[in-house]
Amino acid sequence: MKKTLAIALGLALSIAALSGCSEEQAQQTEASSQSSSAGKSVTGTVATDGSTSMESVIGALGEYFMHENEGVTFTYNPTGSGSGITAVSEGRCDIGLSSRALKDEEKASGLEETVLAYDGIAIIVNPENAVADLSVEQIAQIYKGEITNWSEVGGADSDIVLIGREAGSGTRDGFESITGTEDLCKYRQELTSTGDVITTVSQNPNAIGYASLSAVEDTVKALTVDGVEPTEATIKDGTYKVQRPFVFVTKADTKLTPATQAFFDYATSADAAEIITNAGVVPAN
After folding, report:
1. From its phi and psi, is residue 226 left (phi > 0), alpha (psi between -120 and 50) or beta?
2. What is the tens place of the pLDDT at every residue in 228-264?
3. Which part of the chain has CATH 3.40.190.10?
């Protein structure tokens, strides 16, 4: 089900009028007071649509940006990467959000991508599962139905229950691309959000799933992959192999509104690195 999350914060700014100041000086004072680390204060709306995996990071960036800019309304519609790409292509949002790189045909249609951050895709199991590590090859064999029992990889004698995302999901696209399992996965369930995957795995001792690392909770266990734990450091240095980009998607031939351009510039700058890191992903800048 689609939902729209709207973050609305405002700062009340007041400028004291100084006796003897010219109108020009007063305007300069006001402009100075509205300046922030996110840039000069702007007004308007910024509409984003797409990846559910990007909820934490886009929510934090949107909230901070509005905190620093009076009169800005920021919206995020978590519909999935494919829907977000379509939305920006059709002009229904300002910035599409994708947790996969754009395909060649999407770029050819006039879309541009800007990498905001890198996210590790955690391979998750129920905490009761004794398995702690899998290789990329084993993960692929499990999802292709070549390994069907946990005992084959050091676990209990139980059938493996494969949980994944729906077609069009950026997380699914990233997972299948990395593991080489495109169109080969034998899913038991295909779910429409990261949260649903985590909940389902947490309730089934025999389940395995995948989810954005930033969304993983202690209700599930994230496996090491080829002996490497999914962390910010291993994602940044590339040693954790199951990772994908978080991408801003825009139209090459369409100029962004002043508010949207200001948000875009802030979010992709080094000034936003701390907020991006705190959201559990690795900033590109």
Report:
1. left
2. 999 888 988 889 999 989 999 999 999 999 999 999 9
3. 5-118+246-283, 119-243
- Hey, what CATH class is 119-243 in? alpha beta
Report the length, in residues, of the chain: 285
72, burial (CB in 10 Å: exposed 0-12, middle 13-18, buried 19+): buried
d(CA 80, CA 170): 7
61-94 pLDDT, tens digit each: 999 999 999 899 999 999 999 999 999 999 999 9
Torsion of CA 250, 6, 73, 79, to 10 degrees: 10
Q: Which residues have a Cβ under 8 Å from the Cβ of 103 and sit 6 or more positions away? A: none
Domain 5-118+246-283 has CATH 3.30.450.20: no
Q: Give the HSE-up count for residue 136: Cα atoms under 13 Å, Cβ half-sphere.
A: 14
Cα 160 to Cα 188: distance, rounded to the nearest angstrom: 9
Dihedrals φ, ψ of 55, to 5°? -55, -50
